[in-house]
């Protein structure tokens, strides 16, 4: 399946628009990850723990969006946008949302 941030697929014509599809992931950051990230914040440098969590959440959201598009008969998702939010009382939850328009392009 083609996933693109552009409104079209180069070299292909969009035959059918199926509508907007979403993939959402809400991921909690546990105590160990939070402690490890706090050390990076204190001593400086990148927080590999949070980076890995963000990468995994983004990949899962894109995969969920692709699955929903495929279930509609789409072979591409155009105009893809990825959004990130923190949730919870202590900002301990990460929400990643992938959205785009499911299409069939030939």
Task: Write up what this structure looks like.
35% of the residues lie in helices and 40% in strands. It has two helices and four strands; from the N terminus they run ββααββ. The chain has a four-stranded mixed β-sheet. The longest helix has 24 residues, at 48-71.
Task: Give a brief description.
With 106 residues, the chain is an alpha+beta fold.
State the helicity in percent bands.
25-40%
Total helical elements: 2
Strand order of the largest sheet: 1-3-4-2
**Using only CA atoms, what is the Rg?**
17 Å
- Note the beta-strand portion: 35-45%
Indicate the low-confidence ranges by residue numbers: none
Structural class: alpha+beta
Tell me, briefly, the overall form. elongated
How many strand units? 4
Mean pLDDT, all residues: 86
Distance between the termini: 12 Å
Order of helices and strands: EEHHEE
Described by strand count, sense and barrel closure, the largest sheet is: 4 strands, mixed
